[in-house]
Every structure is written in C-alpha cells, then in structure tokens.
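Supplementary Note 3. Input sequence used for the single-chain structure prediction.
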Amino acid sequence: MTNQPLPSILDAIGNTPLVRLDRLTQHYGCDGTILAKLDHLNPGFSKKDRAALGVIEAAERDSSLQPGQCVVELTSGNMGTGLAIVCGIKGYPFVAVMSKGNSPERARMMAALGAEVVLVDQLPESRPGEVSGADLAEVDKVASRLTEERGAFRADQFQRLGNPHSHAATTGPEIWQQSGQSVDAFCDFVGSGGTLAGTAHYLRQQNPEIKCYPIEPQGAAVLAGQDVVRPDHPIQGGGYVMADLEFLRGMQWDGFLQVDGDTARQTTRDLARLEGIFAGFSAGANVAGALELLKGPHQGQTIAVIICDSGLKYLSTDLFEA
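The predicted structure, written as discrete structure tokens, is reproduced below.
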C-alpha cells in the first residue's frame, strides 16, 4: 500500500489484503486457519485484473500486440472486465464475447468500462446461470471469427503465459509474505487454470512441502479423472470440462477437491454473514474446499485461498436469494 497518488488505476491492481476467516472456521467446527486473499477488491472486482494486465503487458513486450490494435477475448465476465480496464487505459479497442448464461451485470459493467460486448446464445438444453463447456465452445467460435475479421489480438486466457506468470509474480509472493511464510496448503477453483498454476508454482518454490489442490464442480471433475455427469453447474467462471488445460499440463497435485453448487452457495452466504466478505460463487467453492482440507489431511494447519470476485456480479442470480 502506498501513501502517494498512483499514476493510473492499473497501479491499483494487486497487493490485496490477506484475511483470517476465524469466525467461519469456528462456525464449521474446524481446527486450523483459512487465509483469504481478497482479490474481489481489485479495480475490476476480481482476480482476473492481474491476468488481464499480465497478458496485455507480455504481448506489448513481444510485439504480438500493436499500438491501437483491437483486442478480443471470450469471458465469463471477470477477464473481460479486467481487459476492459487495461485496454481502456492503454488505448486498445476491446471486444468481450460472453455467453448469455452469465449474469447480465457483468455485461453492463464491461460496457460501462468501454468494451464492446457481444453476447452469445446458450445451447437449447442449457439454463441461464449455468454455462457449460459446450456453451463456452460456442462463445469461442464467435471470438475466433471476430478476431479474424478485425485483425485483432486474441487475449487467450487459456493459452497466454501472461496469465499464470502474473500470479507467479504477484499473487504467490503476496500470499507468502503476508502469511509470514506459514502456508501449508493452497486450493483454487479451476477456470483457465492460471491462478492455480502460477500461485502453486511460486509457493512450491518457496517450500516444496506446500500442498496444492485443484477444485472442480461436483459432477464436472475432469482433472480428477471423473466422468462428466453435470456440466450445467451454477459456479460461474470454471468447470468448463477441459481435461487438458494448458497451464496445468504436467503439474502434479496432492489431491483433487469437488464442491457442489449448493455447498458453494451456502459457503458464499456464510462468508458474507460471518466475515463481511461479499464474494461470488467460486470464492465460496474455494473456502468450502479449504474447510474440507481442515477436516481431513490438513487439520490444525493453514490453508490459503483466493476470494475470486465480488458478490455484486451475482445480484441477478439466486446466490443471495433469501
């Protein structure tokens, strides 16, 4: 934290607080500590601000992105919001391509930040609020077509190394320093895999004994080698039924966690009620995964998680319905 004015909002990305969730662990009867990285306090209200800045600045360095060139990306809303901010400040036109199954406040926020938002219909069998891997494939087709038509730079969050590198350079070091180098494990809900890959890589460099776990939706746990029986889960931003995510290729995990939509929803509500942290679905999934670890192999230890995005992005969903 600085006591001087920042050159731009981009300099406000990162350095988010790390907070103990002692009230919540006590409520759930767990012995141990959960440390929550409050990345919903980033300018775009999500951890994806880090990845957006990392991808764009890496592309600037290697000249794959030219001055004034259009940027296109598929998004569930968070990466698109981060890119809208970064591209707006740096002078790149930005087109966000998103499924209509994602909450509409995300599209409104991106548009307010200067993005052109293209919404793609869900497949007939899909339900609003539950974006499947097949829905995402339709979004990808539109994003690929627009990239070609406009001669754009595709900010491919599933492939661009600026995504995991941003977390290895910022999220991991921040957690390590703020925790007093006391983390025993880290778990994260898998979207593009960038946060998990980058943060896990850094933490394991500091201490090879730190255990790292992917979290997936129950019924769509492909990384865990399970059959997909529920691709239409409600946890937006992940569980896209991709077994071969680029950033996770070759990485070894200490186990696999699955969280169902109801558990993620209730844990998110408990975060708000008990800790004053107004977060989204995937944050609830992360904390639920950490609670599972404290009840099992990491009893009495310290688990780090990311609060991925803000509950403000879910007000049109059932996440906070009474």
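The chain has two domains: 9-46+162-314, 48-154. The CA atoms of residues 36 and 305 lie 5 Å apart.
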